[in-house]
Specification:
The complex is a heterotrimer of chains A (about 80), B (about 200) and C (about 400). Chain A has about 80 residues and is mainly α. Chain A has a single domain (about 1-80), classed as Orthogonal Bundle (Non-ribosomal Peptide Synthetase Peptidyl Carrier Protein, Chain A), CATH 1.10.1200.10. Chain A is built from four helices and no strands. In chain B, helix 1 (about 30-40) runs parallel beside helix 2 (about 50-65). Chain B has a single domain (about 1-200), classed as Peroxisomal Thiolase, Chain A, domain 1, CATH 3.40.47. The longest helix of chain B has 14 residues, at about 50-65. Chain B is built from seven helices and seven strands, in the order βββααβαααβαββα. The N and C termini of chain C lie close together (about 10 Å). The longest helix of chain C is centred in the N-terminal third of the chain and has 14 residues, at about 80-95. Chain C has two domains: about 10-230, Thiolase/Chalcone synthase (Peroxisomal Thiolase, Chain A, domain 1), CATH 3.40.47; about 240-385, Peroxisomal Thiolase, Chain A, domain 1 (3-Layer(aba) Sandwich), CATH 3.40.47.10. Chain C contains ten helices and 15 strands. Chain C has helices spanning about 25-35, 60-70, 80-95, 130-140, 155-170, 185-195, 260-270, 290-300, 315, 325-335; strands at about 10-20, 40, 50-55, 105-110, 150, 175-185, 215, 220-230, 240-245, 280, 310, 340, 360-365, 370-375, 380-385. In chain C, helix 2 packs across helix 3. Chain C has about 400 residues and is an alpha/beta fold. The interface of A and B includes residues 42 and 49 of A. Strand 5 (about 135) of chain B pairs antiparallel with strand 5 of chain C, so a sheet runs across the interface.
């Protein structure tokens, strides 16, 4: 799970162009949206693309995404359970 | 009668503010990123922007950096930009995300930049401008047409100044922007906003 | 616009709507009045993996109609996008004596994506994928000597193009303005809106509580404007009074939670026009959850909650660069017919500030309306129209 979380952070930094953020700076349990990384609604949509492209998980809309994109840990848990690739 | 308050030009060879070359440190990064690190530095949204927006954004930052009350919300300033290639760079990038049926992942964060006017919105958001934002695409760089359209934007009684000009991005080695801050006559000896003035200042 | 010449107003001289339901404004209006919609479900079209609902033009019918006007060989190298604009302009010109080749005529093209579909066959930089080039080709077709202007302000382009034309007329840069809006749908655009999760799997339901998003559409629409002295304006002439463009200064894709830019455009065009004079407010009404809510907030803030509101996306979808012109023309034809068109797809109020919306048509004796649009980049536009010769 630790390895998946590190991999996920790196993937998020790349997909969302968080150029000045390092994986170490992202807390596994901190909220991804709102304060902190400053992610917005387009980032949420781009995370939906990342889930499908990298892990083969299809989410139907942003509302479903919001439940999963709470923190790195919640996301990694979901990926571990549902990944198809 | 409108006057030209200040202007900036950026091309791959460097940036030039009011006719003076803008010093920029050497590094492996491209010019726009170097200018960002050196003169802005606190707006990470920059890295999410497409190249056209980065170009227009950096030019507007350098042009406005020393203006008083810069971030006070205002409705009296229009942002009016002109381009030839518009969003082509992002159009081409987005097309790559949908071209291969076996690797088909349309990207929302690329798609949003396939609208040429997003650059005017990025500048409005950064500076809290509620005024008019307009993007015009021309078949060639046509100063007379640009000057006339900017003048006509002042027919809106709330518009008192305009951040306007040319912003063009094709690829890393083919880009150019010239932005102007244009306002009402202020008796400070600023030049009149017309074709002769901008031809004298720069080889526009 | 304070410099308006006291004795002249900007008047509609011709119009055309090229839609899946008609090749003229009158035909398209009749279909809408009869409650028809051009929205259909498409599966596997253009290689888009997910099905979508859209309003699409019949390419063959456009070619046939053009062939009746011109030798089709003269148009061989024109794209479908350019052809639909040319056909729409031709039909609008038939209603007037304006010579498009005159140097006192200017062309304004409203489009968001122009020939972008051409990147699908060859993804490289070249002139014929740029909207400025399309505009020049359209202008050349009509032998017009002036540089054409493309207005590319996302979904607000169709109103911004009319505003740009009004300004050029007011300043005396031209005597007649040909304003055309067009967009061709393609895999590029459909997939992009799908990636935004913005498309409804069903025909859209503007302002409804169950709305699930928008439908895309394609159309071309033309408005021909001219300057005319006040004393020559008749009671049935349509006047473009006042327009405004404002930004939310909030987010490049998410509408403002306070309807900021939209509210400010309304404030700017209303000035001292009493709301009781407005027959209706024709909203953008894309049927996405956020757009419709934002508009409801802005309309309420502007003190217009008692004015009837309608949205027309249920008939032709969101026609992007054409929307501002298409919906303006439909609204004019509706008021010529003393009608407030119903909002097709609307059943239950689904916005936090109740609006005077109805699924069915209503009648009115009033003679003015406001057209609203909002789009990506945070831009918003509003334009006030009035029938008859009173000063705006």
């Amino acid at each position: 799970m630790e390895a998946l979380m590190v991999e996920l952070k790196q993937a998020i930094i790349e997909a969302l162009n968080l150029e000045e953020v390092t994986p170490e700076e992202i807390d596994n349990d901190a909220p991804l949206f709102g304060e902190g990384l400053g992610l917005d609604s387009i980032d949420a949509l781009e995370l939906i693309v990342l889930m499908e492209k990298k892990y083969g998980i299809k989410l139907k809309d942003a509302a479903e995404g919001r439940k999963i994109f709470q923190s790195i840990r919640v996301m990694a848990d979901y990926i571990a359970q549902h990944r198809t690739k | 009668m409108l006057t030209l308050q200040s202007w900036i030009h950026i091309a791959p060879t460097g940036a030039c503010l009011e006719g003076h070359s803008v010093p920029v440190t050497d590094s492996n990064e491209g010019l726009l990123k170097r200018l960002y690190h050196q003169y802005v530095g606190d707006y990470p949204k920059f890295f999410k922007m497409d190249p056209l927006c980065r170009l227009g954004f950096i030019a507007s930052e350098l042009l406005l950096q020393n203006t008083p009350d810069r971030f006070s919300p205002r409705e009296d300033r229009a942002v009016i930009l002109f381009s030839h290639s518009g969003s082509f760079a992002s159009d081409s990038h987005y097309q790559q995300t949908i071209a291969d049926p076996n690797d088909y992942f349309p990207s929302p964060s690329v798609f949003v930049y396939t609208l040429a006017n997003i650059v005017t919105g990025e500048i409005a958001i950064r500076n809290h401008y509620f005024g008019e934002t307009s993007c015009y695409l021309l078949n060639r760089k046509d100063p007379a047409e640009m000057i006339a359209i900017v003048e006509e934007a002042f027919l809106d009684p709330q518009t008192r100044s305009a951040l306007c000009g040319w912003v063009e991005y094709v690829d890393e080695t083919h880009y150019e922007t010239t932005l102007f801050l244009v306002g009402p006559e202020d008796h400070t000896g600023k030049p009149i906003w017309n074709q002769d003035t901008i031809n004298d200042l720069i080889n526009f | 616009m304070e410099r308006t010449l006291e004795h002249e107003l900007i008047v509609k001289e011709g119009d055309n709507l090229l839609t899946p339901l008609g090749m003229t404004s009158a035909e398209s209006y009749r279909a809408v009045k009869a409650g028809q919609s051009a929205l259909r479900r498409y599966e596997g079209l253009w290689g888009v993996p997910e099905p979508f609902v859209a309003s699409l033009l019949d390419r063959k019918a456009i070619d046939q109609a053009l062939d009746a006007h011109y030798s089709i060989r003269a148009l061989e190298t024109y794209s479908f996008f350019e052809k639909m604009a040319i056909l729409s302009i031709s039909r609008a010109l038939e209603q007037s004596s304006v010579d498009p080749a005159s140097d006192r005529v200017r062309f304004f093209l409203s489009t968001t994506k122009g020939n972008v579909a051409r990147l699908e066959t060859e993804n490289r930089y070249r002139p014929d994928v740029l909207p400025g080039y399309s505009a020049q080709r359209i202008c050349d077709f009509f032998h017009n000597p002036n540089p054409p202007i493309v207005i590319s302000n996302a979904c607000t382009s169709g109103l911004c193009a009319q505003i740009a034309a009004m300004r050029a007329l007011q300043q005396g840069r031209c005597d007649h303005a040909i304003v055309v809006g067009a967009d061709q749908q393609s895999k590029f655009i459909v997939s992009g809106f799908q990636s935004f999760k913005a498309l409804s799997p069903l025909p859209c339901q503007p302002f409804d509580r169950d709305r699930q998003g928008l439908n895309l559409g394609e159309a071309a629409a033309t408005l021909l404007y001219t300057r005319r002295p006040v004393d020559e304006i008749g009671p049935t002439d349509w006047i473009a009074c006042r327009g405004a463009i404002r930004n939310d200064a909030n987010h490049i894709s998410g509408p403002s939670r306070t309807g900021e830019g939209c509210y400010r455009t309304l404030r700017a065009v209303l000035q001292d026009t009493p709301p009781e004079e407005l027959a209706f407010l024709n909203a953008h009404g894309t049927a996405t959850p956020y757009n419709d809510e934002m508009e409801a907030i802005a309309i309420d803030r502007a003190g217009l909650s008692d004015v009837p509101v309608n949205g027309l996306k249920g008939y032709f979808g969101h026609t992007m660069g054409a929307a501002g012109l298409l919906e303006t023309v439909l609204s004019m034809y509706a008021l010529d017919d003393q009608t407030i068109l119903g909002t097709r797809g609307y059943v239950h109020c689904g916005v936090s500030h109740p609006l005077r919306l109805s699924a069915t048509h209503a009648t009115t004796q009033r003679k003015s309306f406001i057209k609203l649009l909002s789009g990506f980049g945070g831009c918003n536009a509003a334009l006030l129209f009035r029938q008859g010769g009173d000063l705006c």
